[in-house]
Design goal:
Layout (H helix, E strand, L loop, with lengths): L7 E2 L4 H6 L2 E6 L4 E6 L8 E4 L3 E9 L7 E8 L4 H17 L6 H15 L7 H21 L18 E4 L2 E9 L5 E5 H4 L5 E9 L1 E7 H8 L8 H13 L10 E2 L1 H6 L2 E4 L19 E5 L8 H12 L3
Parallel strand pairs: 8-10
Antiparallel strand pairs: 1-2, 2-3, 3-6, 4-5, 5-6, 7-8, 9-14, 10-13, 11-12
Helix pairs in contact: 2-7, 4-6
Length: about 325
């Protein structure tokens, strides 16, 4: 494919290109670019540069003697490996998210939201973040095998949400993970333990390192192994989480004894865990956090968890 300036190219045939709404192309320097088909309404061309990518909206294109058509071009801003990895995730999301031609304004809103995933990442302790992700993926895959087929679609990594899994307005799942110890002591925000507007189920994970065990990369690969079954937002959230873990072929992340870790997963109703008898919000005071010994609560079985999910959303 090429525009009238002959600076974009694709290996797609004219027939396949005419059916696609999102196509991977290359510019004249060989750099990856995405073509997104416009809704066909000719509007004034425009450009936008974000921190991680740039877009040209409502460009006119022509292939050979075919009638001209309109589309949008999306490209990474930088050429470094980190930007290339982020752009690959963005590309996967757009392929899944855009089933029909889209207007420049709608694509602008989508790209603006995507940019926030990959710009100004919060300062994190990578080792602690990786441990947290081990726990989240372990629980996600455990519940998936236990019969909750749609659990992956509840996953998110939005910093504004209080909990790891937002099942419904009335049900949340919070995952806590630590290196194995008998006390199951985890750090909570006070608001996670005393919510009255919804049920919060806490999954406590005890992890044991193992040189021959399952790596964090293995768990990501498994969770994303059947990505076609995931909704676009859940797939993006998992891909963005993997991106933040900075995994490489030489560094697949920490490894755990998976069978033992799964046997030690325990579920609790958050209201049954020890907590301070104070209101959820106190004027002038915010972000109250403390450590809680979950062994002081009464565990609920995975079957009970699935029953609560089914009663809330009507299916698994």
């Amino acid at each position: 494919m090429e525009n009238e300036e002959r600076d974009y190219f694709s290996k797609e045939t004219i027939e396949s290109f005419s059916r696609a709404n999102v196509v991977s192309v290359r510019d004249s320097f060989g750099r990856p670019v995405l073509f997104v088909r416009s809704d066909g309404i000719r509007k004034r061309p425009g450009k936008q540069i974000w921190r991680s990518m740039a877009a040209d909206f409502n460009r006119e294109f022509q292939i050979g003697d075919e009638p001209s058509f309109f589309g949008h071009i999306v490209r990474p801003v930088r050429d470094d490996e980190e930007s290339a990895a982020a752009f690959e995730i963005i590309a996967h999301y757009l392929f899944r998210k855009i089933p029909d031609p889209v207007s420049g304004q709608d694509l602008y809103l989508i790209l603006g939201a995507l940019d926030r995933f990959f710009s100004d990442l919060p300062a994190i302790r990578i080792d602690l973040y990786r441990v947290g992700m081990l726990g989240e993926l372990l629980v996600l895959l455990y519940l998936n095998r236990a019969g909750w087929a749609s659990v992956l679609d509840s996953y998110h990594t939005r910093e504004t949400n209080r909990h790891d899994f937002e099942v419904s307005p009335k049900l949340r799942l919070e995952v806590k993970a630590t290196v194995e110890n008998a006390t199951r002591i985890h750090s909570f925000s006070h608001s996670q333990l005393v919510r009255k507007d919804c049920l919060v189920i806490v999954a406590s994970c005890l992890l044991e390192g193992s040189d021959k065990g399952t790596s964090l990369k293995d768990l990501f690969d498994e969770a994303l192994g059947d990505a076609s079954s995931l909704n676009a937002e859940a797939c993006l959230a998992l891909e963005a989480a993997r991106y933040k873990c900075a995994l490489t072929p030489d560094d697949p992340g920490p490894k755990i004894a998976r069978e033992r870790a799964e046997s030690l997963i325990r579920f609790f109703d958050s209201k049954d865990l020890p907590h301070l008898e104070i209101p959820d919000e106190i004027r002038g005071i915010s972000d109250i956090r403390y450590r809680v010994d979950c062994n002081q609560g009464t565990p609920i079985s995975v079957e009970e968890v699935l029953e609560k999910v089914q009663s809330e959303i009507g299916h698994l």
